[in-house]
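SEVERITY: medium
COMPONENT: batch folding queue
REPORTER: lab tech (J.R.)

DESCRIPTION
The queue accepted two submissions in a row. Attaching both inputs and their returned structure tokens so the on-call engineer can compare them side by side.

ATTACHMENT 1
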Amino acid sequence: MQQPFDISIGNIDYAVFPEGNDVYVIFKEGKEYLSIQKDTDLQWIKLDPETGTPVFETDEEINAIGREILAYVPEEEEGDEDPEED
């Protein structure tokens, strides 16, 4: 499973916690903000905080967060490469 990571949109920082099945819990500026689910590469759906059911309304902030999630490339950890043998 993917590890949590941070993204920034403009001057706002978000922490992204993957939950599996294309669902992500988003923290905005250190506080739990919302849960989103990927619908398509361009459309993301907000999940109701109480029921977890999809809320079908267009929200550009949610779609911008989704685009950043798709664009995120995890940093490679040091020590992953095998040392060359002499």
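ATTACHMENT 2
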Amino acid sequence: MTRSNSTYAKIIYILYLVGLVMGLTAIIGVVMAYVKRSEPEMPVWLKTHFDFQIQTFWYGVIYLLVGILLATVFIGAVVLVWWMIWLIIRSVKGLSALDRQTAIEGTFFGFGRDL
């Protein structure tokens, strides 16, 4: 059961990365994360990944919307580049922790401690 759920978590991280070019895959990923997170007898370390993925999606939507709204000025481009880098870092960090079968911290920026 854990192996199967671990595979789902890995697929979700990959869907997020593919979502940089095809946004629909990120929506599929967050739906999968919500479904898998609520499964009974989920190991705590693995549940943290699904929570992290859900948090990544919603903060990513905020970054994306702010970047699009500010696209008429230079800062919008900076926000969009930041969003892409941020998403890649969070996904790679998640995949790395998943391979080690360890819990992941749900931080706002993807670095350090919670705000």
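NOTES FROM REPORTER
Helices lie at 2-18, 24-37, 44-69, 74-99.
No errors were logged for either attachment.
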